Structures are given as C-alpha cells and as structure tokens.
Amino acid sequence: MAVTDFFAGEIATELLKNLVKICRKSVLCKRTAEQLVTSIDDLLPIIQEIKYTGVELPPPRQRHLDALSETLVGGRDLARKVSNSGRWNVYKNLQLARKMEKLEKKVSGFLNGPLQAYILADVHHLRFDTAEKFDRIENSTRRLEQRLGAVNIGVGREGTGWYEEAVRRAEEEERCEGSLVNLGVGMDVAKRKVKEMVIGKDDFRVVGICGIGGSGKTTLAREICRDDEVRSYFNNRVFFLTVSQSPNVEQLRSKIWGMILGNNSVDSIDTIPPCTLQYDFRIVVKTLVILDDVWSIPVLEQLIVKIPGCKTLVVSRFKFTPPVINCTYELELLRENEAVALFCHAAFGQNAIPSGSNEKLIKQVVDECKGLPLALKVIGALLRDKPEMFWTSAKSRLSRSQPICESHEIHLLERMRLSIDCLPEKVRECFLDLGSFPEDKKIPLDVLINIWVDLHDIEEEDAFAILVELAEKNLLTPVKDARYGDIYSSYYDISVYQHDVLRDLAIYLSNRENVNQRRRLLMPRRETGIPKEWERNIDKPFNAQIVSVHTGEMREMDWFSMEFPKAEVLILNFSSSEYFLPPFIDNMPKLKALVLINYSTSNAVLRNLSVFTNLSNLRSLWFEKISVPQLPETTLPLKNLRKISLVLCKINTSFDDSVVDLPHLFPYLSELTMDHCVDLTELPPSICKMNKLESLSVTNCHSLRELPTDLGKLNSLKILRTYACPSLRRLPPGICSLVWLHYLDISQCVNLASLPEGIGGLKSLEKIDMRECPQIRNLPKSAAWLRSLRRVICDEEVSWLWREVERSVPGLCVQVAEECFNLDWLAE
C-alpha cells in the first residue's frame, strides 16, 4: 500500500503543480482554459486509480481524494465557461476570474497540506518495510510472534503514532528550559564527554549521567537528545523516556519495544515476556534510548535493551557500577564564574553582575547556593527587583540553613526553603499543594485551580494569578499552549509541570509535623498500599485538608478505617483496570473536591460506589481514564456540586435518561466537561433541563453525531465548546436561543456544514472560534446582528465573509488562524 500510494502521490503532485500554473493564466487566455480542461481530464483517471487500486485507504485519505475529485470536476466546468465567455463581458469575466482564484487556492491547499503529509507517511512506512526486508506486514508479525514468544505487535486501540510521539517530545523539550546557555563551560565539557561515551565508544552498550537533584542532569540529557551529531549518528532514532521513582515497568518496556520496531503503538493489552528485550536481532539498527530519572538497578535491568546497535543512556541521582553500566559521567557542580552567570541571568536578566551593584553580597548569596543550577535559578528569581536589605536578610537565612544531616539533598532543600518562606502566605500554601501530584507527571491546570479555589477561598482569577507568580519565580513551569491565559481558555487540556526537586521540597516542608497533624497527607511515590506510617496512626483522626494517595490496584482488604474530619480534597492516583474506592470517603464530611486519575493503559472500573451516596459538600469531581459508573439509586442529590470533568473516560450508558435523572442528581451543576470520551455518540436530552449550567464542553469526542434539539433551553449557558468532534454535522437551531452565550468554539469540526440561520439571536456572543471547519462556506445573513461579537477566529477561506460582517459590527476583530492540517489519520 505504501509504495503504490507513494508513487501515485508523486505523479499527482507533479500534475497538480502544472494545474495550479495553468489556473493562474486561465482568465487571461481562452486557449489556457482549454488546456486546463485537457489537464483535468488526464488527471481525474489517475486519482480514480489511486482510490480504486484494490488497496483500502484510511477514511480521511479517501475523503480528501473524493473532495479533490469533486473540485477538479467543478474546475473543468469552470474552465469551459471561461472558454465560452465573450471577450467584452467584463463583469462575467471578473466573476469567473474570482472563481478561478478560489479554485487555485483550494488545489494549492491540498498540495501544501494533506498531500505532503500523505507522502511523509508513505515514506515512513516504506523506510521500515525496506529496512527490515519484510514483504508483508502479516508475515512480519507472524515471524516475530514465533521468535519472540507469541507477542502480538500492531497498532494499539489506544496507541499513538510516530507523529503524536514527535509532537509530545517537542512539547516536552519546549517545556524544559533544556539549554546549556548560561550553564557555563563546565556543562559544555560534560556534553562533550557524554557524547564521546555515546557515539565514540562502540563497545559501551550502557552509559550513564549521575549527579544530585537540581544539578542539571536532565538538561544535559536533553541536549544530547537533540544534538545534531548524535541524531545523525543514530539516524534520528533517539528516544527520551522518564522512568521516575514509581514506574510502570511493563508500560515502559512496551513503549521501548514499540520504538525499537518503529511502532510506538504496541497494544496495551499485550504483555511482553522478559525475553523480548533480550532477543538478539540479526538486523542492526542504531538506536539511542535515554532513560531519565532512574532510581533502582532492578528497574534499570528490565529496561536495558540488548540489541546490536542499540545503546542506552541512563540518567540518575545514583552512580550505577559495572556490569550494569559500562561507564558513568559524574556531573560536577558549577564553578564560581558559571554559578554567578546563571544566578545573574535569573536575578537581573543578564549574565554578569550589573555595574553599581553590591558585588560582594551577590557573590555571598551565590556561594550559599553551592553551585546547584536549580537553586541558583530559584533563589535568583526570588531576589529579582528586591532591595539590598532583603538580599542581606536572605544571605543570612541561607547561611543558617545548614542542617545536622550533611546529605546533599537535604542541604539543597534547606537552602531552597528560603524561596518558599518568603512567599505570601496564600502563594506559599498553593506551592505546597503541588506535592499532592505524582512525580514526572503533568498536572492538569483545571484540577489545580479547582483545589486552590475550594481550599483557600479565592476566586479563579486570583488562583491563576498565583500560578503566574509561581511560574515567574521558577517554582513551576506551565506547558506552552496558545490558549494559556485566554479569558475563555479551557483549563482541562492545559497543564503545568514541576521539577522533581521542587516537588521534593513541597513534600519535605509538608511532612515536618506529626503525621496526624499534617495539613497535607501525601505519598511521595507510588506504593502497593497505604504507607506503614499512616497505618500505625489510624487510632487517631488525621487533620489533613488534602489527602493524596498513589497506588496500583486497590481491593477492599487493602484499605484501613481512617478518620478525616477536616479533609476537603481527596486525590486518588492509581494504575489499574479495577479500583475499589476507599471506604474512608464516608469519614470525610467536609470533602469538596474528589480527583481520580488512572495512569493505566485501560479505563478503570470503580467498585464501592456506595461512597457517593452522601457527599453533600462535594463541589468538583474529576474522572480521568475511568469507566463512568451508574451511581446507586440511593444517591442523594449533590446540591453543592458545581463542576464535573470527564477526561478519557468511557461513558457507556451511565448518562442515559433511563438510567439517571441528571437535573435531579446535579441540580446546581454549572460546568460540565467531557473530553476525549470516544464512545460518546450523543448527549442525553435531559441535559437540556439543567438550568444552572453555564459551561458545556464536549471536545475531542470523535463519535459525537449530534447535540440535543432542545439545547436552547439552557438559559444560563455562557460557554459552549464542541471542538474536534469530526462526526458532528450540524448545530441544532435551538442554540440560537442562548441569549447569554458569550463564547462558541466549533473549531476542527471538519464535517460541520453550516452555522444556524438564526445565529444572530446570540445577542451576548463575544467570541467564535471556527478554525478548520472547511465545510462552512457561507454565513447566515443574521450574522450581521451579532452586535456584541468582538473576535472571530477562522480560516482564510471564510475570513472575507466575516470582513463583510465586520462593517456592520463595530469593534469586531477577524483573526485568520494559522493553517494546520489534521494528521490524525497518521495514527492508523
């Protein structure tokens, strides 16, 4: 399939390029128009041949080719009209010229977008087919199964493709500062030494980087990952994986296996036997696997790949010795001049001490940071724009922070504690809350904001301001997103990241009190059950306001009876396909926020649903990768519940009107989010009776076919998001009755045919996002009645329609979105 499509795509590309050139001249010469007809007649059979060669194309590719065929047929008719048009009919010729320009743009869009992606995908398939010398995928799978212990290799139901992996890797690289600039000559030397081990020593199969937390290990490893010479040596087969203290080893091994085979979508239900990664392939393909944040030898031994040409770079706080690792580079702390440069960059925005500053004081503060890059950045950010007296006080407090234990880790935490002690009380408490989330995981911004709002009695806008302040002080890092900070941004698909040393600091500061008196009861890493320290103290109530549990599968017998009279937030992080909810939820009378996040590869089935029967104070509920359960009939109406978020969940029939009365169960719900719920085909009609609902987000739900007819009855609705729902073909006319709607997001609804004729009835509408809606080619006349509309985001093809509306609506700004072609089909 790949070879046929590739060469057919090449032929189509050349012919289409000629077609575009002819289009540009067609309005000037009838002879050119006649040539255009001939070219299209020659081209259409080739497209039909691509479509009907007996090879089944992915549905998105089939749709693109069908649309191109229709466009070319229309172009042929248009060219004939040009040929038959009188020379002196100026008005008609002008109309035809505009249509020809539109045809050219459409064909060019296909040339520069999907067609390029088709070729890229085919080259990707062709490269691996040729390299591994397999004639057919079925044969290759069968041979591998026989030789590797009947392992099923293929595209997983929930897997992601190489393109998504590349995007994820790029996002992670942007997330981390990851640059050796400002880290000095020492880091350059370190990079050179590590490169010598990686590409200069063929007999070294496993090499390492070690150093204390915050010393720049991950930064150095990421530099190696994107170094041009390294990537060239390994033919761009360089992969970066974070292991962490509590890894899912089977999941990581599956991912490595997928990378080695050039298939990052190994089925999640397959269990790779221990011998798989030890198999000695005869085909040598150079590959570099970088394992970051490795904590133990047993885990490392399961992840090391023993295949000719494959090398592993291990990044750890510990120095692992031979025979596990051939050679390890010990990362040294920064020298004085390097430390000063990095500190000054954080404190003054330049790489040297500013003239006129107190150089002695600055160097004293730098000296107290002991050459640790992370400490230098955090303390530097803390002291930025502060008066000299504040610097003097900081220096004194730093010098007194030497603990009895001389451990480098404790030493670092004690020194960095200053940056937290100097924060305003609310900001400090919000920072300490970050220790509630697992290491090396992105923290959903929506969850974080909800917790801060419920726990610290602040408004959502103030919570976001605290987030920005923590980011400015290098205490957390927002993952870059175009919507970050927008007034209508959807927080549920934006996240933040925290360095593991800063997380250690939050836990370290939270755990100083007796376990029963702590405000936050946290588990530093994933364990098989409840920590022994908790178990030994269950005879007394726990006064924690936040309880965070991180385990694998939990059964009824794994829990203990515990009292939490003050608990307001419960975060359950786990990794399993089945999970028994803790009985002690019944002993949390003040519980306001319940968060369940499943890190397994399959959706979890929840047990012990009786805990939901009396959560009278619950205000927010977050389910991630859960099979949404049917609540017991004895469940009382949750009158205080304001927000429900279902991410990557299976809805099943839990919301059917025959199963649950949503308006009765959630009478005051104001925000409902369903994201990436793949089995959701329609919303229950009863949702239209939830009169308090202000925000409805149904996004990335690829099976959603329609919205309820009576959606207009949601008379309190202010925000409606239905983006990236490709099966949605129409919006119900009833939405035109949403007189309080402020924001409408229908972006990436690629099959949405039109906007409702009565859209002008949305009198309060301020913003529309309709980028990547290629089927919408006209606007209703009533669009000119949208007097409150201030911003429209759309594609260039329809922007001129909105420009006409712009004349009728004062203050309207039309923003043309960057072209971004949908490449979801690459995952197939």
UniProtKB/TrEMBL annotation:
<dbReference type="GO" id="GO:0006952">
    <property type="term" value="P:defense response"/>
</dbReference>
<keyword id="KW-0547">Nucleotide-binding</keyword>
<keyword id="KW-0067">ATP-binding</keyword>
<dbReference type="InterPro" id="IPR027417">
    <property type="entry name" value="P-loop_NTPase"/>
</dbReference>
<dbReference type="InterPro" id="IPR008808">
    <property type="entry name" value="Powdery_mildew-R_dom"/>
</dbReference>
<dbReference type="InterPro" id="IPR032675">
    <property type="entry name" value="LRR_dom_sf"/>
</dbReference>
<comment type="similarity">
    <text>Belongs to the disease resistance NB-LRR family.</text>
</comment>
<keyword id="KW-0433">Leucine-rich repeat</keyword>
<dbReference type="Pfam" id="PF05659">
    <property type="entry name" value="RPW8"/>
</dbReference>
<dbReference type="InterPro" id="IPR036388">
    <property type="entry name" value="WH-like_DNA-bd_sf"/>
</dbReference>
<dbReference type="Pfam" id="PF00931">
    <property type="entry name" value="NB-ARC"/>
</dbReference>
<dbReference type="GO" id="GO:0005524">
    <property type="term" value="F:ATP binding"/>
</dbReference>
<keyword id="KW-0677">Repeat</keyword>
<keyword id="KW-0611">Plant defense</keyword>
<dbReference type="InterPro" id="IPR042197">
    <property type="entry name" value="Apaf_helical"/>
</dbReference>
<feature type="domain" description="RPW8">
    <location>
        <begin position="1"/>
        <end position="149"/>
    </location>
</feature>
<dbReference type="GO" id="GO:0043531">
    <property type="term" value="F:ADP binding"/>
</dbReference>
<dbReference type="InterPro" id="IPR002182">
    <property type="entry name" value="NB-ARC"/>
</dbReference>
<protein>
    <submittedName>
        <fullName>ADR1-like 2</fullName>
    </submittedName>
</protein>
<dbReference type="InterPro" id="IPR059179">
    <property type="entry name" value="MLKL-like_MCAfunc"/>
</dbReference>
